[in-house]
Request: fold
Amino acid sequence: MRMSRLLLVMMFSLQSSAILAISEEAAMDQANRLAQRLLGVPPSSSLLEAMKNDIMAGKTDLAAIRAIRGESLGFFKSTLVNMFNKYGTQELINDVELTDFTATIVGLAYNNMAFNRLMYDDVIYTGDDKLGEYYVFRNLGMTEFTQVSFDPADVSIATDSIMISGHGLRLGEKVRFFASGGSLPAPIVADTDHFIIPVDVNNFKVASNLNNAISGTARDITDAGTGTHALEYRQEFIKNNYTPSGGSELKTVRRLNFNQLGDYPRQYRNADASVIDPAANPKVEPLLRLQNATSGNGPYGDIRYDDNIHYRNLETRVSNWPERLQARTQSKLYSTVNYSSKVDNEDIMGVITSRQMGRANFAAGTNRRGLANSMRAFYCSEMNQLQDASAPDVRVRRDIDRAPGGDHSVFETNCRSCHAGMDGMAGAFAFFNFDVSSNEGILRYNKNGLDGQPTEQDFSAGTNQKKQWRQNNMFPAGHLIKNNTWFNFWSSGGPNVALGWRLPDGGQSLTEGTGAHALGEVLANAEAFSDCMANRAFERVCLRVPTPFESLLVKQMARDFESGFDDLSEFGANTEYNFVGLISKISAICFGNE
Amino acid sequence: MKMLAIICSCLLILASACSTSVSGKLDAVLTNANGEDDGGDTGSNEENLDEINAGKQQLGVKSFIQIVETFESVTGFTRGANQSIRNYYNSNKAALPDSNSIEAFTASQRLAIFNLAYEFCRLPSDTDQIRADFYEGTIFGGRNDEGLPLPLGPPTQVLNSQANKLELINHLLNKFWGTYQFSDRASAESELTSMIDYLLSTLQSGETLQSNNVTKYVMASVCTAALAAGPVILF
Reply:
């Protein structure tokens, strides 16, 4: 029996009526715990006060989203990453560095994008273009030890910035300050390295170290000082008078291949033209390992995809990395040698085809894990919970014995109910293989990998995509994967109709299609995805499973999640599949009423 | 090492006390998880917990990454900028809590949290430049007109009165726990004061109350106790 939404809202309101009597200390305690649950770190006193007032006013969801969108990025850097991290691994381990899998999940949530895009869209998040600027030292005529003066009147305590008209300074550049006839602005220390955070052409802030500059963490200026101040330029490499050649400076630097010493421009050379070895001098080590891996691969062909260095550096060196994520076209990022140069976007399935989840899904095996892992991560269901004995077995592959131990009934009772549905869908991943032998591992894609007919070699241990032909004489009448077509037998009957299938907007059929992207559209549009996300949000915030009554609320929140939360539009949560809005609403179920 | 062992045992007591007082709910959860005082019915502990927990708020413990990020947030010291913290964390994070479940929170994890807190807290005690800024505004830090760190006095000078001890304690509690006066704050002040008195009364051979190093030990101890306590690591 399903309750009407109105009835649910009324019951929830009654249940929450105790909030009217909540004491200030109890509200403060609730606010503190809710903020720490969401952020992982303590809230500021001002945030705590605002959240307390929200809770006392019966607006716990507002308190939650205020915390998430407050001054800390803790929800995105820690809580959200921890919610999904393990699902990008075969072993389901939490201790994983930032990867393209988690960065894309965070990028979608942070930017108020439809969260179900993670299951189908041709998107991947990387660091933004500006992160390359740190290494682009401009030639503006300012040489090392040049000094520029400014007055206390040019120092803004309110904005923590300094005004020098047309300063020409760029992110991360090193300067020192000196006082003449007075004292420097506090807390700037004389003759000590500081690093620039440009605000605009005339104003800039200063950071205490390079990482802080890159992350935008400026010194809090508490006093403008007295007398006359001087800024001295201390960037070592600018004196080499490097002029970027062709195109934008950023483009030039992004195309540098730091593995080839001969490619270094003058800014990375000593006076005698010998190269400054970046390995020996961290000042010239690339912040993010941006590299033009293969020419002609489109605008984003510069992220190496046989290692995780880009994301590793992003996490460890850019403290505000969720703010610095930028959406890219995933299919253009792949660049492999001796294989198809790019992935067809029909085979891109959001984070399922990210490099990290590719390792979990497509290393060795038969690529069936792609479906099983997707179900676990985004449907909150193991394959044995999705058994459907009524599904036809026409797509069950040749490697599945139809009479284990000589007994066909074993196949019917133990094998078919999983493999019929799973093999029907897993064909979508036909062209992928994760090659662990290349550096840290690379996700390869070979659209021609299943041409021809199985050979004797493919019998036991195929290579690359032909791994899907292994054991092909176990049951030669079984299905042989030759392309990336798939069938969804769960939507037309049997127990898995309860997953709540709905036609995607683009007209993609529920029952069959070509490529992982189309399959992703079908899976991302089912109620099961939203239900899973809502339950996962509940367990993360409330640290337990919902009661039967709360389950009804969670289910309703899942439906609201699909259409957006209009009452949280102030925080941009009125967009479809807004995950920040969802977890804020879910928070109000177990917080604010005790 | 003797000093460290004493600190450790004191801290475990304190952390427990703070944990239970932070919300008044941990006692019930932990007591039932341990199979004691559960009303004596016949169900398993797990079943009892499920029943008790149904529909109620749960107390959770922060996971390894949440703990280190919390420590970074409240101290201002980061893994990126401090090699000793980074190395310790990378080598020992497996010993820290892996999930938010209070039921899976073990004594060894609590000890690992203490050790991590100590890595953070020894920084301002070991380095005058860091101490000057970390304890700015108290008699334990600050700089002179030339920007140089003010010297640290021995216990006979800076820990010789209740007011001075509370200055240290409240400075750290404000940093780590926030300035809002939760009901458990007073008991924490009392316990930390007792801990300072205990540490000053159990000096090792060669240590005296005229030694600045003893002040540093005490500062690191109080800092560690306040940082590894319930209000910081539980939520």
Summary: Chain B touches chain A at residues 23, 53-60, 62-66, 69-70, 72-74, 78-81, 93-94, 98-102, 147, 176-180, 182-183, 232, 235 (CB under 8 Å). Confidence is low (pLDDT under 50) at residues 1-49 of chain B.
